[in-house]
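Worked example

This section walks through a single chain of length 503. The input is the sequence exactly as stored; nothing has been trimmed or padded.
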Amino acid sequence: MPASPAQAIVGGTESARAYSFMGSFQPSYPAPPRPDGHGCGVEVLAPQWVMTAGHCAGKNPTNAKVGVPRGWKVRVGALDTTSGGEVAEVDHYYRLATSHDDGGFWGRDVALMHLRTPVRAKPVRIASTTPSDRTPVRIMGWGMTCGDFTNAACFPTRLREADTVVQPSSACPSSAVGELCIGSPDGSVAASNMDSGGPALVREGGRWAVAGVVSGPDESGKTLYTDVTRHADWINGIISGGNVPPDDQIPNVEGAADLGNCVGSVVRTPASRPQDPALLLTNGHCVQGQRPAPGAALVDQPADREAPIADRQGYPQTTVHANRLVYATMTGTDIALYRLDKTYAQLKDEGAKVFRLTSTRVRTGDPLTMAYTGGRFACTAEAVVTHLREGGYQQDGSIRYATSEDCTPSHGNSGSPLLAPDGATVVGIHNTHNDAGEQCTDDNPCEVGPDGAVTSVQGRGYGQQVYTIGACLTKGSKLDLSRKGCTLTGAKPRPGRRSGRPQ
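Given that input, the structure is written out below as tokens.
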């Protein structure tokens, strides 16, 4: 079951009055896909503390467990997500677990968020014990009332609620230890998408108490709630200040450009001037539309692509728009260059990281840092292989990474820059790894030695040299394949030299 938002209140009705402790979590990054900005539910536990689901606070770029967010706020004590109540900025988050914890994630999907300023809302307390089967509960939230993300009517701005019961764990086949199974037997009353973090309320001493927070849907149609009563010591330890975990050491991901399916980086050459349009480097196989054919290159084509450029923590420092595909090939190397709508001077003014593009090749033993939008890998060039073949393409002088727990790129890391120890120079670009140990097929690159011997090892990762790019670029971020020293695929032949690369 993925750590994604659960399904809003199905089978409920609009609340007649506001609950002082109930709130809407509204992060600006990543922005929820709805006009009101609502992403998850929260509950006020103390004047500067709210509780939500762990995966809601997991919407930080590096999947950190404890850290400082950017652009997060909550609106509490309101019926409507767009008005009323109190609005406060979130300045810290604490997640009990991440999906990578050895202790497991399910049943521990809970988080606390600290508010920069206190709110006057009356808090709700944690229930004293796990509610037994058939216990009446009230659920509420602003989640989706239908499944069409393009239909604004599916996103209610008014709080909805429903009364239901705790079901036996056996009624939720996908439930884990520490989760409550909640909803009507047929699933007609349950939580919904963007109700995540919302409460399951029980009555104790004539007052509401929160027993659980929405974690995710069950295959039965009911909803799985994290039983927060099991984590009262963790919650109280943080709120009281007696046991506050330290911030995670967040890797510096400055300059990584998020292309959705790939990663990129803004690069400049010695010929680049401040007034020149900036260039973004990624893989040739990351281009939109038709990939360049074996033995060929795409040159000077229209483009329409946006990419946020990350700050040190991975939040967008600025956003650029690629309006031209300057060059792309998957032969000889696997690169693509986009021309952006901003100059190098503009990006400098906006605080965006711009890397230098190397003019020297990576050699065996060179240390490399692979920068991607969610973190960094520490890699070493184990070898520079003669040829790398994959799915009908061949690259030359490819960089094989040494096998290491610190260097485990996967799908989605394509296009990530390989940085020199100075952290400012792009010396290569990640492009592939062998998934299944097959030879020379898609996602299974093979090495071809000088003697023609073919080897293929499952799990091996590879990057491409980029030192040849600068020789083909001129002032104004223009490509000139006829320049002396330009050897990229498609370069104009000169006497005594062949163009392109062998297949």
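What to look for: Residues 1-8, 496-503 have pLDDT under 50 and may be disordered.
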